[in-house]
Design goal:
alpha+beta; Chemotaxis protein chec; 4 helices; globular
């Protein structure tokens, strides 16, 4: 697999995102992406015949909304474990759909969730075959990227 079809990946992400979170997202220009103070990043690694990763990055406001929707609770009652679990599960669902359609014969690791603004630097240094910024219905930003090693 070389560069994957952006429209196909975009469609998968749109459908999986809404089905998993209940939130709408809209694609935006990467140049409009800003790094929030408290960033959450979840990555899923593909290994085997085809290798790569899927990464989801978002700020705390959207991460709390995500956890609130996924756990059917109030934003005020969401704790750090809920946030980590929900962004990890979202990354896992997205990666599972990407794997099926693009990576084929490979294994998926459990999601790794990181927190902190320094983690964003490593996300942008990777050569992605798909990288797109999105804005949620509450005007919060999210970055989704798919990488593949040769």
């Amino acid at each position: 697999m070389s560069v994957i079809e952006n429209n196909t990946v975009q469609g998968l992400i749109d459908n999986c995102w809404f089905d998993t979170t209940g939130l709408e997202i809209t694609s935006t220009d990467l140049g409009d992406l800003t790094s929030p103070d408290n960033l959450f990043i979840a990555s899923v690694i593909f290994s085997g015949e085809n290798q790569g990763s899927l990464t989801v990055a978002m700020g705390e406001v959207l991460a709390k909304q995500l956890a609130s929707n996924m756990f059917d609770s109030t934003i005020e009652s969401v704790n750090l474990d809920d946030i980590r679990d929900s962004i990890g599960e979202l990354a896992n669902v997205l990666a599972g759909n990407i794997k099926t359609d693009f990576f084929g014969s490979c294994s998926m690791a459990k999601p790794v969730v990181m927190q902190g603004s320094d983690a964003m630097i490593s996300v942008f240094k990777i050569d992605a075959i798909f990288q797109r910024a999105f804005v949620s219905e509450n005007d919060e930003q999210v970055l989704i990227q798919v990488c593949q090693t040769a």
